[in-house]
Write a structure and sequence with these properties.
By secondary structure, this protein is of the alpha/beta class. 45% of the residues lie in helices and 17% in strands. The protein folds into 3 domains: 123 residues, Gyrase A, domain 2; 125 residues, Four Helix Bundle (Hemerythrin (Met), subunit A); 159 residues, Rossmann fold, CATH 3.40.50.300. The strands form 2 sheets. A 7-stranded mixed sheet has the order 3-4-5-6-2-1-7. It has a 6-stranded mixed sheet with strand order 9-10-8-11-12-13, sandwiched between helices. Helix 4 packs antiparallel against helix 5 and helix 6 packs antiparallel against helix 7. The chain is flat. The relative contact order is 0.13. Homodimer. Heterotetramer of two MnmE and two MnmG subunits.
């Protein structure tokens, strides 16, 4: 069990910067209630020290030094361990302007709190055992969710869906270790061979479970971070029009003049629950325009970094040398080829295109008419979910750190299996199994180093 060692009382503004109807200052630690008692006066004269846990009281925030009323507020006290951090927590809900929030925060700091570090409230929840590390990471995933699907995955992980799977696997591996160590401790019973055979079967079963979790990793990562999607093609084929159609707003400038888009335009769009980080690039062509040339080079760089490439071609024009040059950029990349302007008389030879496209999906669309866009959205969903990963209640791996730990665990289990097959003694098998058990513990935080913990929580905002 992790242990919270800091006795500091921390304070921070927990709501987003800017104006809003309500703003919240959060204080956590042994001095939280005493600090609130010095600056809050209920409308009926009630002091913070007399407020029951989880009771809401309306009153004023008053500067104890000058007697000045700073703002009207609602005070909520959540006494530990029945709180987010398992410490005493005070939340001051005031008007959501930057001035009252800053004044109230300054008062809490003057009265004995210190400014919280990024993610320190959630870090304290982890260190006190309120959350494990995978659940703590899910908190930031919820905050950053871009679609309902990504939110469902994050909420599932916060509720412990993934953690439960990991803990079950660790328990199974621990049983394997115990079985082998029993064989080591009682050599006269001659059970080493039988124990190794039983463990081999259990390893195969555990590795299959890890394989199922890893099969969700690519989809989970995309739901968490977005599918990096680049729209490419020669100038004036409708790239910016496609971006606008997917966004359902006029984000990019659209003209009949080739080379209008010179820089990179990046936006997020929700495609059937999948967050697409969609990038409209400059048309790829030979140009003497210095600015446009830089845009073309950046477009080529983005192609190599993309998860998905949407290549636009013009149905009303024959396949050109510029089109072929863009097709060559797709080598080894996941791409969908879109033949735009399909509402116009076609001059494009589709048989010729299919040969150049290889086994890639080719869709006819008309951005101006809206034709084929539903089919494009379905094709993107099929690519992401790979036909077998659903958005149900099953555990999702949506974190690169978790996926890496699972891969290393699988590798150590395979090494343990190879050790058994080589007829090595049980203590050699135990070495690999214990390494696998420890690697899984990094996901939940049971065996993770302090440097990794610190690195994870620095990604959080202050106040969470």
């Amino acid at each position: 069990m992790n242990v919270l060692t800091s006795d500091d009382t921390i304070s921070a503004i927990a709501t987003a910067i800017g104006e809003g109807g309500i703003g919240i200052v959060r204080v956590s630690g042994s001095k939280a209630v005493a600090i609130a008692d010095k600056l809050f006066i209920g409308k009926t004269g009630k002091r913070a020290a007399d407020i029951l846990s989880h009771q809401v009281v309306y009153g004023d925030i008053v500067d104890p030094g000058s007697g000045e009323t700073i703002d009207e507020a609602i005070l909520i006290i959540m006494r530990g361990p029945r709180s987010y951090t398992r410490e005493d927590i005070v939340e001051i809900h005031c008007h959501g302007g930057p001035v009252p929030l800053r004044r109230i925060l300054d008062l809490t700091l003057t009265l004995g709190a210190r400014l919280a570090e990024p993610g320190e409230f959630t870090k304290r929840a982890f260190l006190s055992g309120r959350l494990d590390l995978a659940q703590a990471e899910a908190v930031i995933d919820i905050i950053r969710s871009k679609t309902d699907a990504s939110l469902r995955v994050a909420v599932g992980n916060l509720s412990g869906t993934l953690s439960g799977e990991i803990k079950h696997l660790r328990h199974d591996i621990l049983k394997m270790i115990a079985q082998l160590e029993a064989a080591i401790d009682f050599p006269e019973e001659d059970i080493e061979e039988a124990a190794a055979a039983d463990v081999a079967e259990l390893i195969v079963k555990a590795n299959a479970e890890i394989g199922k979790l890893l099969s969700t990793a690519q989809t989970g990562r995309i739901l968490r971070e977005g599918l990096a999607t680049v729209i490419v093609g020669k100038p004036n084929v409708g790239k910016s029009s496609l971006l606008n159609a997917l966004l359902r707003e006029k984000r990019a400038i659209v003209t009949d003049i080739p080379g209008t888009t010179r820089d990179i335009i990046e936006e997020y769009v929700n495609i059937r629950g999948i967050p697409l980080k969609i990038i409209d690039t400059a048309g790829i062509r030979e140009t003497t325009d210095v600015v446009e040339k830089i845009g073309v080079e950046r477009a080529k760089e983005l192609v190599n970094q993309a998860d998905l490439i949407l290549l636009l071609l013009d149905a009303s024009m024959p396949l050109s040398a510029e089109d072929r040059a863009v097709l060559e950029l797709l080598a080894g990349r996941q791409a969908i080829i879109l033949v735009n302007k399909s509402d116009l008389p076609s001059l494009l030879e589709f048989e010729e295109l299919k040969k150049a496209a290889g086994n890639r999906l080719v869709l006819k669309i008309s951005v101006t008419q809206g034709d084929g866009l539903a089919e494009l959205e379905q094709a993107i969903a099929d690519l992401v979910y790979s036909g077998h990963v659903s958005q149900g209640e099953a555990a999702f791996v949506n974190n690169v750190r978790h996926a890496d730990a699972l891969r290393h665990t699988s590798q150590r289990l395979e090494e343990a299996l190879a050790t058994i097959e080589a007829g090595m003694p049980p203590d050699c098998i135990v070495v690999d199994l214990r390494a696998a058990w420890e690697k899984l513990g990094e996901i939940t935080g049971d065996t993770v180093g302090e440097d990794i913990i610190d690195q994870i929580f620095t990604q959080f905002c202050i106040g969470k």
